[in-house]
Design a protein that fits this description.
Number of helices: 3
Oligomer: single chain
Radius of gyration: 23 Å
Distance between the termini: 52 Å
Length: about 110
Amino acid sequence: MVFVERDANGEIVAIYRSQQNNANEELALHDPQIVAFLGASSSDFNHSDTALIRVIEDIVDVMIEKNLLRLTDLPIAAQEKLLSRKTLRQRLSNSLDLLVDSDQGLL
């Protein structure tokens, strides 16, 4: 939670970690007004989360390939999510193979 200071129009002009004389209103960090004030939309966060998820998946794959981690070392729920996403990515990748190379078949 943070405390906000507003101008005469009700717009947020400052954010504080603790209550101030001019900032008595408390809002959650993920409140849309706070996010907007900080200049990032929720779609920016969603895009960032999606990109970060892909990075984490790739890191897990590399660690498994290098025998630094076994899939079974992870909790069952994490295993299921990783396998589900990998299967989904493979299906999507295969469905996008629309070009045909005369020497090799599908690209």
